[in-house]
Design a protein that fits this description.
By secondary structure, the protein is of the alpha/beta class. It has seven helices and five strands. It has a five-stranded parallel β-sheet, sandwiched between helices. Helix 1 packs parallel to helix 6, helix 2 packs across helix 3 and helix 4 packs parallel to helix 6. It binds D-ribose.
Length: 146
């Protein structure tokens, strides 16, 4: 299994922690983003790379960490096939997978901190999509009424 994990300068700790969680579970991880907080990165540039990776099938799951998670999710959700969710608590982590089949998890390191991101990415990975009526609804996401 493969994951693309990216962050801007505001989410480096969270990104590194998430990458380790995946690697400890035997996933192949591609990390995208700066190495130091002095190295400023624009969150859309990182979100573009991760979203392309997920929506072209290079990775099953993407993770994006920035200050709030919001800008990352806004960018990722421009991509056809991307289902990016800003995750702040375990219920949201579970439901974004179980009901929405989210394929990109977005976190705000300045909002919830690295330790919580570590806990929540585990819930995200461990929760399967429920399918059924939720599948019908997820299919409708891309159907914009004319
Ligand atoms: C960077 O200062 C900050 O704006 C960014 O990490 C993120 O919070 C944007 O959504």
């Amino acid at each position: 299994m493969k994951a693309f994990v990216g962050s801007d300068h505001a989410g480096i700790d969270g990104r590194k922690t998430v990458a380790e969680v995946f690697r400890n579970r035997g996933w192949e991880v591609t990390e995208i983003g700066p190495s130091t907080t002095e190295e400023k990165a624009d969150y859309p540039d990182i979100a573009h790379e991760v979203s392309v990776g997920v929506t072209t099938g290079l990775a099953e799951v993407g993770v994006l960490v920035c200050g709030t998670g919001q800008g990352m999710a806004m960018t990722a959700n421009r991509y056809q096939g991307a289902r990016a969710a800003v995750i702040t608590d375990s219920f949201t982590a579970e439901m974004s997978r179980g009901h929405n089949n989210a394929n990109i998890a977005c976190f705000g390191e300045r909002v919830i901190g690295t330790e919580k991101i570590k806990d929540l990415i585990a819930v995200f990975i461990d929760t399967p999509f429920e399918g059924g009526r939720h599948g019908t609804r997820v299919d409708k996401i891309d159907k914009i009424p004319s």
